[in-house]
Amino acid sequence: MQTVKGIPVSPGIVIARVFVLGEAETHVPHRDIDPTEVESELAKLDGALRDANADLVLLRDRTEQQLGREAAKIFGFHLGLLQDPALLGPMRDRIRRDLVNVELAVADSFKKVTDQFKSIGNEVFRQKANDVLDLERRVLGKLMGENESRLSKLSESVIIVAHELTPSQTAGMDRRRILGIATDLGGRTSHTSIVARAIEIPCVVGCQRLMERADDGDLVIVDGDTGVVVIRPDERTVQEYRTQQERFSAYRRVLRETAPLEAVTKCGQRIQLLGNIEFPHEVESVLANGGDGVGLYRTEFLYLTNDHEPSEDEQFQSYRRTLELLAGRPCTIRTLDLGADKYTQQRAHEPERNPFLGLRSIRYCLQNRELFKTQLRAILRASAYGPMKVMFPLVSTLMELRQAKMILNDVCEELDEEGIPFDRNLQTGIMVEVPSAALLARAFADECAFFSIGTNDLIQYTLAVDRGNERVANLYTGASPAVLYLVKQVIRSGRRAGIDVSLCGEVAGEAIYTMLLIGLGLRTLSLVPSQIPLIKRVIRSVDIEHCEQLARRVGSFDSERQVLNTLRDELRKIDPDSFGGWIAE
Ligand code: PEP
Ligand code: MG
Question: Does this model's pTM top 0.90?
Answer without folding.
Answer: no
